[in-house]
């Protein structure tokens, strides 16, 4: 596009002196316009601005970084033209401090500059979302305990209403849900109280006075209008046809009843509505014995739709009379009040907890900034700026807001406060596209954009103005024509919040040179009919595929077909066409959940490289879940699910049949017990070999876990198991390895934040998963990687791809948020059911019904905008795909919606759509090329008059059956078997290349110093000890049998011996060894350690106090108190020859060195010599057992100390807590 701006773009760049709303359609170059406007402002001939006089707010950090980069490049280019321009040189300098940032970054800046106006410590930090979620959980738990103890009547009633029989988690979830909702508004506390007060009914009030009456009337009207529409349509079809006289009379009577209900709705009286509703009568239709049975059936189906619509009103809005409805609303008042007050108390407690920890979260950013910038009493329509806001107003000459359609009311108030609006200096420049407002779940309010769009004039000269950018510089004309064709028929102000007229339509502005090869082409719709039956032969040879797998197979086949056919895309960097690559293709889906494993199966089998950001939480992605299962087994192997997962993983490859055999052999009990039994008595060599390898690995891991930090243990697991390398070999391997590296970072962060030990890290992960606050998986390293991108439509916003598949269009919309026990709405407050606690009966109230209907319609409008975002990502080729259960019935349903004389399809029918296909296909059925539909699903004559015979967009329709998918899969399987047979029977004797001997010589080469390759460069003391014990005994050391069975499999609770030993070690590490501890002093130390978080309450209780006191009163302790120096937890690393630590013959003549590392518990210096002490909590009682087990460890400690201190070690002792003995060690 360069500098060739359209008239509208030029106006957006040059307009000054007013609040400007730029409605920028998809691909219209809004970012380029915004950057050019900034450049023009800072390089103007007269009064140029400094770039730090502008506030530019973007939606994401990436957008802010991109904008800064573009501005920097533009300034640099200007400097090349004017190298001596001081002002331009300054702008390049100022760019790094320019306020081009996200709204959250701006809020944090405000807080830092004016923190003294808040009751917070300036040292606060932004907490990780996972930390915030865990803190919320803790605070909520403490609040509930307080409310239980106080026996708060409102809370207990709330618990009975919304709790469950076995606990209070459902109510806790509800509190957090309402809290999160309230945080999106300027004054959460006031909002919550107002929401509760809506249920208050004064004496004499009726349901007509309730706050939801307008919404109730609207919901009823929607149902009534749909019934009237379908009845009128049926009546018009048979009117004047003598064969249907009886039908006509019946329909006339029903139409009169519906008309009477319509008239009643014109006046706000629920009692009158109810009376009119009861009068509507759908009697039995008379029998039809004529010849036009198809018409009769069609009329009856329409009439049944009307009857169902009226019937649903009876189940929802008219299930009770006015008096009962009034009573239900009034009865909910104490419940709503208790809910709001509980949420408010939680908010206060949570705020205090954050304050104590010096934490902020993202909600704090906006609310603290709002507190700084606006006076109390400010509203969206009446901002009263504070002195701080007025100071910031002087700082900025213009406020530029990108993606304005996604702003919420808090952000609107913040940016208005720092603009010049209060003094009549209109200086806001707002850019967005309401058709792309898809963040309602983040409380975005497209109404803010729409309100300005409706009221701002196009004409210049006033204090406000709107500019419309409708030219698309991204896509081919046929793609845009196809998008316009669909949305002119489906999107309206009533459904989508946008009237898709000529202003909203897309117009081609991109130039694609002519090309003789295969490029561009028709838009495509590919539908898979799931009703067809596959042959018995196909099912015999192939596993049954689910619908996603079949759709993925269809997509993979299309990608392969395009690659094979040599499809070309235009590369603007090369300024020429080139063959399509995988990176040119994107597959967009509404929800990525379940698609990850599907694509692994299908795309992996097809050899199509792809990248998909998983929908699962980070800790649930397969590679991370596997490593976590390693850790769970190291902590405790008596856990069936982690154990089965690891044994079945590629590392050990034990099949499902083999696992079943192990279970049957072992009998009842936990699976690890079955494994041990099979190791002792099993017969199958292959299974035994794998189990023995697993058992040896497990023992090794558990030993290493005692010596290594969590991060080091993970690195060891990656290397020792080869799992990191394996992950890199699988489809999407680079991303899987990135996830594994990210786990190392998370483990290191956990330990740096005072996290302690493997056991607690696993519990930390489980808590985060329970709180549903897991962080995102690792990101793709390079956009240049040749991979098909698979992503959600939301993730694709702002991106573009040459070839786009919009998939899973048959997926039904998610309506879960309208079925919750309590629903919330930004305007209408709570929607709640009433629970009669005496009879344990639930009553649906008008507040719940009306809000559910309103939320459903708003969700559907957003889904329409989500679909628009998806379709507008395509540059050259748009392919829509989906599955339907029964194509014939689906087409008949779509044809009813398509059968309209108006260009806009009936909103009443669109609102009843269950999937994107229910909107797209009725529109496409009116396209001239739809005649390729296979028999017997041709559209009837009723739709002929409404087809757009002069429609410019070109579409190709492909309809597949399950047999087509299975047939293709069968052909591929047969080809693979044929290829495998060829290789299995390959004659290896002939010299095909003429270089057979040379190849075999190269492949059989052996390294001269091969034994050295088996030598580890670094080894821990624990590993040396384990190898030493195995070597001197001549067999592998067995796993210590001190393993804890999980709570669900044990009768008594408590810590394992290893955990108690770790706790004892913690006490010795913290103790002042120059101090003589008695029982009181020891207890004081333990309490202090618990308060510091170094001991849990359970660990403190498990400390063997008697054994510790025995040590502190021992001769060795008294000797230490008099020592010249005492050192604890002394880390060391030293180089030794292999023969010093390993007994195997292969190590005896090696000249290389290995590094050993470890941590010495304690040593002290007396009389210029060192005394070494290592304390052990093993439940051993014989001194020789200690000496034999720890001889090699203490000998190496002694050698390390002598090297480090340059002093002789005159004595080495083990202090054994169990027998209470000091055991001298002799290395002669």
From TrEMBL:
UniProt key word Transmembrane helix: no
GO molecular function, one term: 3'-5' exonuclease activity
A single cellular component GO annotation: DNA helicase complex
Coiled coil: 857-904, 1079-1106
Catalysed transformations (reactions): Couples ATP hydrolysis with the unwinding of duplex DNA by translocating in the 3'-5' direction; ATP + H2O = ADP + phosphate + H(+)
EC number: 3.1.-.-, 5.6.2.4
Purpose: The heterodimer acts as both an ATP-dependent DNA helicase and an ATP-dependent, dual-direction single-stranded exonuclease. Recognizes the chi site generating a DNA molecule suitable for the initiation of homologous recombination. The AddA nuclease domain is required for chi fragment generation; this subunit has the helicase and 3' -> 5' nuclease activities.
NCBIfam families: addA_Gpos (TIGR02785)
Name of the protein: ATP-dependent helicase/nuclease subunit A
Taxonomic lineage from the root: Bacteria, Bacillati, Bacillota, Clostridia, Lachnospirales
């Amino acid at each position: 596009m360069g500098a060739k701006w359209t008239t509208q773009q030029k106006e957006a760049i040059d307009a000054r002196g007013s609040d400007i709303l730029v409605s920028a359609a998809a691909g219209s170059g809004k970012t380029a316009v915004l950057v050019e406007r900034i450049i023009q402002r800072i390089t103007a001939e007269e009064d140029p601005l400094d770039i730090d006089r502008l506030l530019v707010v973007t939606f994401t950090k990436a957008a802010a970084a991109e904008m800064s980069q573009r501005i920097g490049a533009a300034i640099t280019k200007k400097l090349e033209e004017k190298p001596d321009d001081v002002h331009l040189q300054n702008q390049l300098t100022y760019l790094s401090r320019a306020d081009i940032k996200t709204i959250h970054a701006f809020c944090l800046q405000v807080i830092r500059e004016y923190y003294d106006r808040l009751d917070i410590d300036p040292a606060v930090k932004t907490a990780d979302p996972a930390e915030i979620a865990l803190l919320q959980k803790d605070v909520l738990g403490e609040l509930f305990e307080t409310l239980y103890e106080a026996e708060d009547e409102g809370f207990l009633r709330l618990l009975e209403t919304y709790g469950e029989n076995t606990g209070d988690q459902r109510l806790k979830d509800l509190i957090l849900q309402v809290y999160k909702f309230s945080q999106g508004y300027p004054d959460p506390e006031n909002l919550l109280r107002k929401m509760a007060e809506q249920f208050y009914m004064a004496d004499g009030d009726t349901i007509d006075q309730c706050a939801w009456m307008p919404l109730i009337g609207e919901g009823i009207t929607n149902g009534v209008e749909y019934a009237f529409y379908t009845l009128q349509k049926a009546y018009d079809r048979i009117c004047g046809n003598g064969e249907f006289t009886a039908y006509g009379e019946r329909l006339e009577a029903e139409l009169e009843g519906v008309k009477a209900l319509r008239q009643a709705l014109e006046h706000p009286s629920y009692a009158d509505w109810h009376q009119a509703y009861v009068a509507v009568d759908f009697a039995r239709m008379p029998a039809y014995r004529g010849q036009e049975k198809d018409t009769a059936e069609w009329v009856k189906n329409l009439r049944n739709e009307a009857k169902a619509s009226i019937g649903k009103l009876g189940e929802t809005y008219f299930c009770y009379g006015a008096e009962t409805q009034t009573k239900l609303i009034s009865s909910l008042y104490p419940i709503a009040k208790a809910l709001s007050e509980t949420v408010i108390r939680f908010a206060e407690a949570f705020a205090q907890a954050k304050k104590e920890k010096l934490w902020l979260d993202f909600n704090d950013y906006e609310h603290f900034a709002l507190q700084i910038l606006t006076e109390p009493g400010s509203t969206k329509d009446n901002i009263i700026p504070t002195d701080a806001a007025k100071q910031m107003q002087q700082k900025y000459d213009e406020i530029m807001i990108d993606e304005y359609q996604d702003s919420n009311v808090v952000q609107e108030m913040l940016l208005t406060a720092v603009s010049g609006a209060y003094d009549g200096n209109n200086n806001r420049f707002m850019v967005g596209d309401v058709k792309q407002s898809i963040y309602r779940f983040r409380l975005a309010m497209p109404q803010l954009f729409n309100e300005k769009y409706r009221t701002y004039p196009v004409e210049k000269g006033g204090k406000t103005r709107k500019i419309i950018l409708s030219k698309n510089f991204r896509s081919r004309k046929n793609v845009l024509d196809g998008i316009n064709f669909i949305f002119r028929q489906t999107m309206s102000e009533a459904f989508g919040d946008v009237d898709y007229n000529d202003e909203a339509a897309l117009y081609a502005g991109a130039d694609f040179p002519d090309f003789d090869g295969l490029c561009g082409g028709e838009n495509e719709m590919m539908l898979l009919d799931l009703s067809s039956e596959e042959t018995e032969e196909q099912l015999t040879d192939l596993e049954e595929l689910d619908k996603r797998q079949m759709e993925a197979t269809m997509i993979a086949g299309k990608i392969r077909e395009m690659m094979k056919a040599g499809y070309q895309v235009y590369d603007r960097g090369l300024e020429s066409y080139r063959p399509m690559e995988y990176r040119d293709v994107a597959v967009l889906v509404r929800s990525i959940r379940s698609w990850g494993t599907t694509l692994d199966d299908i795309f992996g089998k097809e050899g199509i490289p792809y990248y998909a950001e998983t929908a699962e939480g980070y800790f649930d992605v397969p590679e991370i879940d596997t490593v976590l299962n390693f850790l769970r087994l190291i902590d405790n192997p008596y856990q069936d699910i982690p154990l089965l997962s690891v044994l079945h993983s590629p590392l050990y490859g034990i099949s499902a049949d083999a696992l079943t055999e192990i279970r049957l052999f072992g009998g009842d009990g936990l699976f690890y017990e079955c494994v041990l039994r099979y190791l002792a008595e099993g017969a199958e060599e292959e299974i035994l070999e794998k189990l023995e390898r697993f058992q040896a690995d497990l023992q090794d891991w558990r030993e290493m876990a005692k010596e290594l930090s969590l991060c080091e243990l993970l690195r060891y697991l990656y290397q020792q198991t080869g799992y990191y390398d394996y992950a890199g070999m699988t489809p999407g391997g680079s991303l899987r390895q990135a996830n594994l590296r990210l786990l190392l970072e998370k483990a290191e962060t956990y330990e740096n934040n005072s996290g302690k030990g493997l056991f607690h890290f696993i519990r930390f992960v489980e808590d985060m998963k329970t709180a549903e606050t897991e962080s995102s998986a690792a990101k793709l390293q390079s956009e240049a990687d040749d991979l098909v991108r698979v992503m959600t439509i939301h993730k694709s916003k702002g991106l573009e791809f040459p070839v786009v598949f919009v998939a899973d269009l048959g997926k039904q919309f998610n309506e879960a948020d309208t079925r919750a026990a309590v629903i919330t709405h930004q305007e209408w407050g709570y929607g709640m059911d009433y629970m009669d606690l005496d009879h344990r009966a639930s009553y649906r109230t008008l507040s719940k019904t009306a809000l559910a209907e309103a939320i459903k319609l708003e969700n559907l409008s957003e889904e329409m905008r989500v679909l628009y975002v998806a379709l507008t990502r395509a540059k050259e080729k748009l392919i829509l795909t989906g599955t339907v259960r029964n194509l014939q019935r689906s087409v008949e349903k779509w044809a009813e919606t398509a059968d309209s004389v108006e260009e806009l399809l009936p909103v009443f029918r669109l609102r009843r759509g269950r999937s994107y296909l229910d909107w797209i296909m009725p529109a496409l059925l009116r396209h001239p090329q739809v005649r390729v539909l296979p028999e017997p699903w041709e559209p009837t004559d009723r739709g002929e008059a409404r087809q757009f015979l002069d429609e410019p967009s070109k579409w190709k329709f492909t309809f597949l059956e399950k047999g087509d998918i299975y047939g293709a899969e069968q052909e591929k399987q047969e080809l693979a078997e044929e290829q495998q047979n060829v290789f299995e029977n390959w004659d290896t004797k002939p010299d095909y290349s003429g270089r057979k001997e040379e190849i075999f010589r190269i492949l059989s080469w052996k390294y001269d110093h091969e034994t050295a390759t088996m030598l580890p460069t670094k080894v821990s003391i624990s590993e040396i000890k384990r190898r030493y014990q195995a070597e001197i005994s001549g067999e592998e050391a067995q796993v210590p049998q001190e393993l804890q069975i999980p709570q669900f499999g044990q009768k008594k609770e408590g810590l394992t011996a290893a955990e108690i030993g770790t706790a004892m070690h913690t006490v010795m590490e913290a103790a002042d060894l120059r101090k003589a501890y008695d029982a009181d002093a020891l207890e004081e130390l333990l309490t202090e350690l618990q308060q510091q978080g170094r001991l849990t309450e359970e660990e403190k209780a498990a400390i063997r106090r008697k054994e510790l006191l025995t040590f502190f009163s021992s001769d060795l302790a008294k000797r230490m108190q008099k020592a010249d120096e005492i050192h604890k937890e002394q880390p060391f690393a030293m180089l030794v020859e292999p023969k010093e630590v390993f007994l195997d013959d292969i190590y005896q003549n090696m000249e290389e060195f290995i590094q050993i590392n470890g941590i010495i518990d304690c040593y002290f210096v007396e009389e210029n010599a060192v005394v070494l002490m290592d304390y052990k909590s093993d439940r051993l009682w014989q001194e020789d057992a200690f000496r034999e087990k720890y001889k090699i460890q203490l000998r190496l400690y002694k050698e390390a100390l002598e090297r480090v201190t340059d002093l002789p070690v005159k004595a080495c002792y083990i202090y054994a807590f169990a027998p209470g003995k000091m055991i001298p060690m002799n290395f002669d």
